[in-house]
Write a structure and sequence with these properties.
Elements: E1 6-7, H1 14-17, H2 24-30, E2 32-33, H3 35-48, E3 52-58, E4 61-67, E5 77-78, H4 81-90, E6 93-96, H5 109-121, E7 126-131, H6 132-137, H7 189-192, H8 196-206, H9 214-219
Parallel strand pairs: 1-2
Antiparallel strand pairs: 3-4, 3-7, 4-6, 5-7
Length: 221
Amino acid sequence: MGENIQYVLPPASFSSDGQKIRTPERIFDGRVATCLDLAMLFAACFEQAGLRPVILLKEKHAWVGVWLIDTNFSGAIVDDLQAIRKRVESGEFIVLETTGITNTSRSSLRRACSTAKTYLEEEGTFQYAVDIHRARELRILPLPSRSTSQHAAAEVSDKNTPSIEEMPDLPPLNPELISEVELDGRDTPTTMSKSPIETAQGFKKEGDFSKVGPRARNFWG
């Protein structure tokens, strides 16, 4: 990752008494993080990117997952291991071992995915998962940041910049979850993002109103 973060073990009381979680700023300032710190860091990044993260916990370890479709579990806390396994196998949900970004245990994305999946195959160690998006729907919101300093992005030298690797193979997504959209030959991400009036303006220049709705057509006479 180029940040020289060292992985540290959580305190012995992690499972029973809880654990203080380092903020992203403290992680990058101190260059140390536990598995829970890293899982929360990844979850924060996923959520900021508009994705739907899930924190997973088993005995003495935490890792992260993320939805690949716009859905969530029925509850914010999920202890049904089989339900999580099914979501992973269907291709709707992916899990990641986050400690692979540290100097202690650096690994590829493919290995991070396979390692995280093995945790779901263990019997008797899984505890629960926390679906962040579902928690937000239930009005469980993040605490406001109390940091007043502006943490500048660390400069990464070219020699430490990791090469881009190929994406790991994912299970095929359930066809029932894929919606079909018929696109006109002129449809592009740019034209599809425009308002009906803006689209009508473009079609008017071409003299073609066949794709324009009646309200927009009447607007242009």
